[in-house]
Amino acid sequence: MTSPQHLTSPTARSCITKVRVPGKVILSGEHAVVYGTKALACAIQNYAYAHVQDTANAGFRLTIADFSIDQHYTPQQLQQLALATQARHQKFFQSRLPLGHVVANPADFFAAALGASGALDLIKPNHGLHIDLTTDLVVGGGMGSSAALVAAMLAAVFKHLGEPLSQQVLIAKTTQSEHWQHGQSSGLDPFVCIIGGLQEYQLGQGQSHHIGGISRSYLVSTGRPQSSTGECVEVVKKRAVPASVWQQFAQVEAMMLQALEQGSTSELNSAVMQNQRLLDSIGVVPASVSAFIQQVEQRGGAAKICGAGSISGNQGGLVWVVGIESELMVALSQSSGYTYTPMVPDLKGVQDIE
Predict the structure, then answer these.
(1) I need a labelling partner for 251 at 20 to 30 A (CA). Which of 41, 67, 85, 231 fits?
(2) 243: how many CB neighbours lie within 10 A of its CB?
(3) Intra-chain end-to-end CA distance of the chain, in Å
(4) CATH class of the domain at 212-342
């Protein structure tokens, strides 16, 4: 085995390299962002964590408790997984393979993302790494968990090997694996998770904005959607939604941004309601989730799904609720069998941690 002093990195010894990346919520513009209109998203104080350290065994040990993953890969296996996943993704674009068949399982997804990242070029012969990923994000719930986990993994691995990535390079590498999940990712999740804060995003570019205040704001988990983000996007695309609807999404996004910057509760409530009506119109809000949102509105608040929603089943992922008191939030969530947490923005993005 290559001795530690022969490694290029001052950190790639017995120490552990630790990185965290926040999740995100789309406040406005979900689905519309795929068609080039602006989306408004905010990083949140729920995180994906990556811990990387050297091991005595050559190759890569990948552990992710949330997916019950504990597997060992050789560099050759990682490279083969990356090439095979990229080939299946290409078949999807040629309409020769359903999107759901591009990624076989979570273990292969994360392993392929590592294999395609360029990290294999930095690893020394017989060098071993243990990569441990954890998260307090709701997996599959619209919080950008896959982007946050991949970004944390790549940031930690490259730093551990002595070649820390810039934010822009990390965004590009993370977006590559997001394409496998979503067909053609807008790139929003990697951008917002890695940069942090309140971001207005359009066609691969983001602009940071000040948050004037988000009081009485909650994220409600209605359960993991039965359909994936990519599947929802594909179905909406086939429905040939009129361009005027996407223009309405853009108008609501501008209203919501203004309300957030000014800290106006009444204007924010109005924008959230209008956004939800548009999401209802494109058919991505399960009936049970829609019923919960109506209960919130009847009590003077507003709510909308955050993310792709679902085209089947009763779960719709995350719902953003604004404008009601915490006591009422407790009652509403309990009556529907949902859980919730306060929404707290993260302003820092990807960070090294001790």
Answers:
(1) 231
(2) 10
(3) 28
(4) alpha beta
